[in-house]
Amino acid sequence: MDAHVVHRAAARAGTDVAVTGIGLVTPGGIGVAASWAAVRAGRSPAAADPLLAGGPVAFSCRVPGFDAGALLGERRALRLDRFTQFALVAAAEAVAGAGLDPLTWDGARVGVVLGCADGGPATVEGQHDRLRDHGPDQVSPLLLPMQLPNMMAGQTAIQFGARGPNLVVATACASGATAIGTARDLLALDRCDIVLAGGSEAMITPLVMAGFARMGALSRRADDPAAASRPFDTDRDGFVAGEGAGVLVLERAADARARGARVHGRIIGHGASADAHHVTSPAPDGSGAEAAVRAALLDAGAGPGDVQHVNAHGTSTQLNDLAEAVMLHRVFGGGPLVTSTKGVTGHLLGAAGAVEAVLTVLAVQQGVVPPTANLETLDPRMEIKVADHETETRIDLAVSTSCGFGGQNAVLAIAAP
């Protein structure tokens, strides 16, 4: 390992970042309790999607019963794209759970770092239809304030009076994890005292789904959508698109202790890398993801033998799952128990890494590895232990892996509170 890399990791290793608040909006339900219960139950809510009717793939994993008007106010909800609505609801749960009062905190020391892959495609598609059918005078003046990716961070800052660094990062399906790693850096550099970190995505639109379908990325198991997302299964045939958000409140552990905060878990390592291999396909040997895993462990001051659980990227696509399994076996052997929660939630794209970070925090906190839904027959080429049922076990350290188009990799090391 390069001496400069080791020195930088050692310098950062002293920053212990506590997770003091968590919020979720997922296909499993609105809120942490509903989402976690659904993931533990191992039942996917994927179903036929009327908005995708007539398209090549007409099912998805939607957030059930999401009433933005009731949650955010009717007038405000109409001025926000769905991906921002999700982020605000998840952030509100996280802030409330952290026991923080935005009216009394020093907003200049509060940052927001969120991730997404696309921003607001539903707004763009809807306004394009208005342009085509009615002309430019009928395009909404809110088009850009609604669809720009940075607007979910900006709107979150407005809602909570967070005047510190305000960022949206885009590393495709690794965006949420990249955002959390970036937030950890801001705390380590003393740029913030509190950071709202995570990701949100709402990309289930006819155009986006047609694009994924044309790439061959989506499952075509239309006769049984609930069984379509089947990570690591020999019969997997693509991912199921999901939507939602995950937000964490992050603080330096010393600050959290000083105010008597409840700590759910700790982010003690972050690694990032690029495959530099292909626009959409992962490096077949998983070498890019491996570099990110090893960097996260080095940052955490831990080794592969210290890890009891891996929340894998596990998209249910042929190439991704095999490359990841090969990589996990090379790094960990047959050690930690692996799960992919995408069997329940579907693939939340840019929000996936954030939602899975929250789920990993819960797994570590409660000593529970949730099942990989729909796993019937493990691909025989995979030499890893994949959880096909809920397992109670002590978890001192877990790793959450995220990968994205462009060869983006982001890995978080999450320790017990």
Automatic annotation (TrEMBL):
GO terms for biological process: fatty acid biosynthetic process. The keyword Transferase applies. Transmembrane segments: none annotated. Residues 14-416 form the Ketosynthase family 3 (KS3) domain. Gene3D superfamilies: 3.40.47.10. The keyword Transferase applies. PROSITE patterns: KS3_1, KS3_2. It comes from the Bacteria. This is Beta-ketoacyl-[acyl-carrier-protein] synthase family protein.
